[in-house]
Please model this.
Amino acid sequence: MSRRGPPSEIKRLAAPVMRLVDAAWQRMHWWVATMAVLYALSGITIVRPDETAVILRWGRLVGDTPALQEHGPGLLFAFPRPVDQVMRVQVKHVWEVQVNTLDADAGATPGASSDEDENVSMGNGGTLDPLTQGYAVTADHNIVQLAMVARYRVREPAEWAFYGPTAANVLRAEVTAAVVRSLGEMEVDRVLSDGRKNLVAVATRRAQAGLDAAHSGLELSSLEFTRLSPPRELAGDFSAVQSAYINAETMKKDAQSFAEGIVPRASAAADADVQAAHAAASADIALANGQAGAFKALDKEYRANPAVVRERLYRDAIEQALRSANVRWVPPPVGGKYSGFRISLPPAGSASRPPA
Amino acid sequence: MDDSLKTQRWLRAVIGSLALAAIAFSATGVVIREGQALLVLRFGHPVRASTGAGLHFKLPWPIDQATILDMRRRVYETGQTEMLTRDKKNVIARTFVVWRIGDPLLFLQSIGKEADAESKLDGLLTNASIGTLGEHDLSALVSTNPNDLQVDKVESELLGSTAPMALKSYGVMIEQVRLERIALPEENVTAVFEQMRAERRQFAAKFEAEGNLEASKIRSEAELAAARIRAKGAEEQARIRGEAAAQVAKTYSDAHRTDPELYRFTRSLESLGKMINGTTSLVLRTDSDPFSLLQSKEKP
Model:
């Protein structure tokens, strides 16, 4: 017994623990076995439809290429921790970040909300403090303010998860830089009118290039301007230009309305005149034809009985003349001449009187 | 009993081995994930740095101490600094950098914490920005002429003047430097506002003048078109009337040519009828026709 002194002492000290383990095993061996099985299966993961998973084995990414590294939706078999660690990334979900660094109230506080724009003081009566108020300078040295929403998704899960910078920070910085640079190439009137679409396209392309250079693993899905306008102090001046433009357009439209009225009216009047001329011509010709026909008929009769016809015509004419005229009958002169003879004629239009 | 004893011994061996292995692993094993770096300090003295992901081993504490560094990229935005361009114009610029730990040991020795790294970078970038923008005109940053713009060059110069020093001095790898903001000093903004107002007034006047001109042109052209239409109508009218008159004249002349003497007679009678009306006074002797019939001895 003496040669087993030290081991016996260890045994003596460990005996209670051993008894405890023995007792636990006898009473809970099924539970222990179950827990061991569950632990062995704990590496099995369900990857959801909008996710992609990557496996880290002892911290190292499994697979040499992105295609081998990324695992799509379904069951994924992996070893339990600490051997394997499965990271699931929502690659199809589109996230968004507000970019207000160039808005009125966010010059020095990247990411501050612009929801309270209406209540923001715009500086000391006609200026902007660049340290507290955001804005951008256009190519023609004008000032505009804008707020944006950048929408993005994770394109390369491994790069985004292990090497890329924080998504919101890098997006805000890259988008702001891209927009500032793009605005520096465009004149303010283009920016505020037909160049807006181009501005978005150019800035999106530049921001994506920056995100790629930063190994962010992100894809900029869209960039939208929720506000793009001149500073509020100049709103009245820009509105005046808009009003002038609208007035000019109104004047043009009035003139076009006038033109659209006057030309058809002139056409109608000219057409009416022509039709009247046609009518008058037809009437004149008809009258001439009638009178010519009447003359020929009269001439035929005249050739047959010239004296009678002539006499009748003459007398008809004389009778007509005498009926309409104011006639004064006077006796023939005595001795070939009148002496002391006076005639009184009534005023024009009065009834005829018997001869004096 | 023998089986039970064997099971007990086997169980004891397994549990003991597992416990020993877990203790040994936790004391010596270090799992370095992708995007992390390991720095092993032996009694405080750095002996090994590793940037490779995987399972690493070290001697147990207190001999070796493992420090894990986050090697992911970070974005740092500098403060806004007023500076002078080559053409003596004041601008306020802000840059941002994308950086990561390039040399873990040097980073730990020279900086230690991430927040301290950013203060070092701020000074480095501000100094570089002042120097670099001082070598370029403002038109290199904002200009209507594309040939003047040199933003890529400016950013490349900023990177060139900061990245080597940051790596050498602080173990910080600067991968990207970009101009995030270009603004004007507050005093200059007032002048810019006045310039913008003047431009707006100019545009308003231009729009109104162009509108007036265009409207006047449209009206004039319409009036001209209407006048042309009316003139053409008048011409057509005159032509129709002329042709009709010619036809009437021909009709009359054809008819009257058959007996000119009768025509003259009837025409004289017509003239007489037209000339004598209610305002005409005739003085006739009672011995003339038809009154003379009353005095005639002959009866019809």
Q: What stands out?
A: Chain B is about 55% helix and 20% strand.
